[in-house]
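thread from #wetlab-drylab

HS: before we spend reagent money on co-crystallization trials with adenosine-5'-diphosphate, can we at least see a predicted complex? here's what I'd submit
DV: go for it
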Amino acid sequence: MISNITAMRNVKSLKDIDVIGKRVLIRVDFNVPVDSHHNISDDRRIRAALPTINYCIDHNACSITLVSHFGRPGGKYDEKYSLKNIVKRLERLLQKQVVFVEDFENSRDEIAACSLERVFLLENIRFHEGEKKNDPELSKKLASICDIYVNDAFGAAHRKHASTYGVMEYVETKVAGFLMMKEIEAFRKALENPVRPIALVIGGAKVSSKITLLKNVLKKIDKLIIGGAMSNTFLTALGYDMQQSLYEEKYIETAGEVMEEAKHNGVKIYLPVDLVITDSVESPVDVRVVPSQDVLDGFQAVDIGPATVKLFSEAIGLSNTIIWNGPMGIYEIDRFSKGTYKIANAIADCYAYTFVGGGDTADAVDRAGEADNFSFISTGGGASLELLEGKILPGFANLDRKEEEL
Ligand code: ADP
Ligand code: MG
């Protein structure tokens, strides 16, 4: 089950190289959850990058430049997604001045001038159209501002983008940061000899990027528990009218195939039997619990209902390995957070290996007060699912290796 992980563990890490006097570019994942006033609601991902950044400071790198994406700005500037909103928090956590670089192409000299008094943070790399397209031009530009590339963005390690993948082609020395190594080690422990039954609990809103990999994951698990916006697409595939609920028209067929394939593989699928529905998310007047097939005209599903919580909790309680990605509802809003929190409680209460991944899901676990009661909290959602699928993540694929490929 873990040959992919063995191969990924064989990459060189920061510890295997010298950074003295070198310009180091660190791809971090600062895609943190924020509220509508740009307040960071969970800074776990920033804290998780500190060991790598501090190591470079302590070992006298010439300069340290941090690169990250934030949200989905669609390849152009959008103030809402500016990384300037996280500078203060980063400065406080690092206890160092952070120089925010809006236009890195014109700041090359500044970055090359050695000074460990400050750390550079580049503006959201997804403001460049070339990032998601893995454009060689952008990769080369990033490569030109560093001697060493360190990938520590586990949350984006499943992406083949310029700053997570393409850039490695143009930098001589490229290694993994400590977060990447820590994550891969935790996955090895979880997946080397998983105690069955294995349950995957999946929810959240990123249906398009997650639903297709469910088919492959089915070969590795015993139960698939689906909630959140993800389940709306499945319920639609069953023929239910989900009304105004968030679901993906384009993936209804895939949902049907996943259910077929599950039957074929003997994997039991659990879907919501009741839902919390509302007439409006922003200013709800009418909020009710209804059976899943009875979503009212003009309403949308925003959480799983109490009967579903019971059903899911029982299935979770009878599992020995539980992997969770994706909230069960719009947990950011108190009124629609109950299902997610109860599932967090149910998983935390299990005598099982419990594993949670994803920016929002980790935030939800924290808010539920259960952060200390999980075996491992990964910073990666999509990345953890792709690991489970058996893939070699692109973020590891081109890093320097300790020995030749196994
Ligand atoms: P993660 O960041 O953990 O990988 P996702 O980003 O896929 O998870 O999904 C989290 C988002 O899904 C949250 O913002 C939450 O509000 C949203 N969500 C969950 N259920 C629903 C739903 N029924 N309708 C709309 N949004 C939902
Ligand atoms: Mg998310």
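DV: The chain has two domains: 3-180, 194-388.
HS: ok that's useful, forwarding to the group
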